[in-house]
Amino acid sequence: MNPRKALLILVPYLWLLALFLVPFLIVLKISLSDVALSIPPYTPTLDLSAGWAGFRDFLSELDFENYVFLSEDSLYWKSYLSSLKIALISTFLTLLVGYPVAYGMANAPDEWRPTLMMLVILPFWTSFLIRVYAWMGILSNEGFLNQFLLWTGLISEPLTILNTNTAVYIGIVYTYLPFMILPIYATLEKLDASLLEAAEDLGCTRAGAFWLVTLPLSRPGMIAGCFLVFIPALGEFVIPSLLGGSDTLMIGKVLWEEFFSNRDWPVASAVAVVLLAILIVPIILFQRQQQRQQEAEQ
Amino acid sequence: MRRLTWFNTVSLTIGFAFLYIPMLILIIFSFNESKLVTVWAGFSTKWYGELIRNEAFLDAAWVTLRVAVLSSTVATVLGTMAAYVMVRGGRFFGRTLFSGMIYAPLVMPEVITGLSLLLLFIAIGLDRGIITIVLAHTTFSMCYVSVVVSSRLVSFDRSVEEAALDLGCTPFQAFRLVTLPIILPAVASGWLLAFTLSLDDLVIASFTAGPSATTLPIKIFSSVRLGVSPEINALSTIMIAIVAVGVIVASLMSKNAIARQAREEKAAAQT
Q1: Which residue range or ranges hold the ABC transmembrane type-1 domain (chain A) (predicted)?
Q2: Residue A40: its chain B contacts at CB < 8 A?
């Protein structure tokens, strides 16, 4: 291998090793340590100067105490379950909202499509924090939604939406909608229209043709979209902390509070490790699906 | 058989209304006279004036901008190198680990990335500040850059590169004179992506920023936690306007570039 190529490989490789893999190993290690009133607030610290004996001492002091604590304290497993529930429900809602939009885009006249695409992508470039914040003024008790509903006479008392799980669902659907629309649109756009004509010639109604032809053929896009929403929604922090209430349990928020408010680094690290363990299943499924998709296209 | 039925029209209208109305309300109410953010009291630009006089916001904006320029530039260099290695590098020791480390940060929850980097910085005794935010942002955004650039590297015709090598270019010259101009649009959009990701990031910056460096998202987050404020509406409007102009200009430019390319190809075919 020539030195130039080695350098080309080594620079990004070492960067990622030092700033991605090593930090994660540190989290793993701290999750096995104990809390201590010191700086940094955990023991044991690895003392490399003590050589092999120091390393042995270090290993002997690690234990799974924090994980036992996570499994015993109901706050944690309730938060994991509630994060899963919130992520699943909001992924499903995003699919319900996103599919008709993607379908409409795929059926729009050709000259509209670049504009429609741009309109879907534009929010993606806009600050995530600002898009979540925009809903605070809409959903509050004196907010625009309540003002509008009171004005139409549909309700006589303002609804409490902000600081509930409903607001979290709305926030997730809103911010992740482009991630759902784009992959579905990509599969619908490639769909061969002659298949629909054939179905209708063979006696299908339009709805029947949609159900039997369009929907199954757009499945890869729907699956990709669902993963793209579900995976980040599970570890979400900003949406539950701005739109959710004190009873909204999401694991991203619990980790944040454990770290910043309780300053319990070992438990925060254990929360992170378990969250990652939960995420690995959907991530692997998603990668497999993407691979199958690529092979099918070749 | 494209047909825009009433159903399509309705779903497009509702979908785009849902995407845009919240931002429109934000923009309209940034020009509201009243401090009450949900009651219209007449047109005024006073919140923009307050914003310009608010030094804490200006300082935070300056920090954010410096972090974004630095981290997206380093991330573009590293990400392009990583993409080149992945697509053209052939086999090397630890390739699987390398590709894993490029894709993992894309799906890693931000709270975990932030926590792990903070623990690293503390373990090695690095003082938290602008440098640590830049390091953190570079690490995750280089992965996005590498995905964008490698998709371009995969799709272009390798024979042009080989021709350059056959005609006596060194590999570095071939890269600079042939490969780089071809992948440049992808490198540019990678940079832009890294730049916006850095501008936007709250969670990772909160973990890795020390008390000495506050970025704009951290500042916005701490003030909106207390509720909606007209000043933040004004700030949001400015940020939305910058992004909208940027995206529209970029899309018009790429449209023109495609049209020009088509014209040139047609002209070349005629001669």
Answers
A1: 80-286
A2: 122-123
Instruction: Out of B7, B101, B243, name the one closest to residue A125 (CB).
Output: B243
Give the nearest partner residue to B139 out of A19, A120, A135, using CB atoms: A19
**A34: β partners:** A43
Average pLDDT for residues A200-205, to the nearest whole number?
86
Asked if B104's CB is within 8 angstroms of A130's CB, the reply is no
* pLDDT higher than 80, residue A287: yes
Mean pLDDT of A224-230: 93
Looking at the partner chain, which of B111, B200, B246 has a beta carbon nearest the beta carbon of A237?
B111
| Contact yes or no for B123 and A272 at CB 8 A | no
For chain B, the first-to-last Cα distance in angstroms comes to 37
Give domain limits for chain B: 53-227
| Range list of H helices, A73-214 | 74-107, 113-125, 128-139, 144-152, 165-190, 193-201, 206-209
Query: pLDDT band at residue A227, thresholds of 50, 70 and 90?
Result: very high
Could you give the number of structural domains in chain A? 1
Q: Name the residue range of residue A168's domain.
A: 64-297
Which residues of chain B fall short of a pLDDT of 70? 1-4, 271
CATH number of the domain bearing residue A202 = 1.10.3720.10
A208 is written with which tokens?
């029947």
Q: What pLDDT is recorded for position A5?
A: 81
- ipTM given for this complex: 0.87
Interchain proximity A234–B2, CB inside 8 Å: no
What pLDDT was estimated at residue B12? 93
Q: How confident is the model at residue A47 (pLDDT cuts 50, 70, 90)?
A: low
- pLDDT recorded at residue A49: 59
Q: Residue A9 is nearest to which of B4, B85, B196, comparing CB atoms?
A: B85
CATH of domain B53-227: 1.10.3720.10
Q: What is the pLDDT of residue B59?
A: 92
In this structure, the number of other CB atoms found within 10 A of the CB of residue B173 comes to 13
- So what's the pLDDT on residue B1? 45
Phi, psi of B244 (to 5 degrees): -60, -45
Instruction: Calculate how close chain A gets to B64, using CA atoms only, in Å.
Output: 13
Output the CA torsion B202→B204→B206→B210 (10° steps).
-140
Give B-chain residues touching A101 at CB under 8 angstroms: 11-12, 15-16
Q: How many residues would you count in chain A?
A: 298
